[in-house]
Amino acid sequence: MNAAATPAIPAVVLAGGLARRMGGGDKALLALDGRPLLAHVLARLAPQAAPLVINANGDPQRFAAFGLTVIADTVADHPGPLAGVLAGLEWAARAGHEAIATAAADTPFVPADLVERLKAAAVAAGTDLAIAATREDGALRPHPTFGLWPVARRDALAEALAQGVRKVRAFCGAQGAATAVFPDASAFFNVNTPAEWEAAQRLRAP
Q1: pLDDT digit string (tens) for 97-119?
Q2: How many domains are contained in the chain?
Q3: Is residue 182 part of a domain?
Q4: Is residue 172 part of a domain?
Q5: For residues 148 and 99, is the Cβ–Cβ distance under 8 A?
Q6: Is 1 contained in some domain?
Q7: What are all long-range contacts of 74-82, with beta carbons under 8 Å and residues at least 24 apart?
Q8: Could you tell me the residue range of the domain that residue 96 belongs to?
Q9: Fewest Cβ atoms nearer than 10 Å: which of 15, 70, 186, 200?
Q10: Band (204; pLDDT cuts 50, 70, 90)
Q11: The CATH number of the domain where 188 resides is what?
């Protein structure tokens, strides 16, 4: 099967973090080149996936300008990105989708072929779950918040969260996820600190 020829799937942008290292607030709404970080992410995902959905907690109206569905975590106490993935999978199940792709809201240079490569890696490995990685200094560096997630795994994910699993890599490793290796590490540059925000100003998406 040609993974690139399969129907489009939804993409859930994970914006539910607490941004502690940025002093709190919404990292996704920080301006880069005159637009919010989230706008850069959505623009790069739009040609690859449909529909686009935002995972965020708190008042959804702060994202009203984007005109997209906003879904909150269904697990209490902000346990991390896995809770956002679960919220996305539960939304997808209700909407009749079979899978979702995910991307972090603070990564403005998302690869233009993210979804295609994730699908291809899953197909090649004979599985339905895949995460992104890059090769840096000879070692594989996973970027597990960028993934392809089948709705069929939502019960396993809910159970893992209930048991205290918080690391995306831990869950994906236990589930035998495939790895899609991307050539450009800068595509996964994320803004966690003021210094990284300054670096993003210099990098700027082309």
Answers
A1: 999 999 999 999 999 999 999 99
A2: 1
A3: yes
A4: yes
A5: yes
A6: no
A7: 75/161, 78/16, 78/17, 78/18, 79/161, 79/166, 80/17, 80/166, 80/167, 80/168, 81/14, 81/16, 81/17, 81/145, 81/168, 82/157, 82/160, 82/161, 82/165, 82/166, 82/167, 82/168, 82/171
A8: 8-203
A9: 186
A10: low
A11: 3.90.550.10
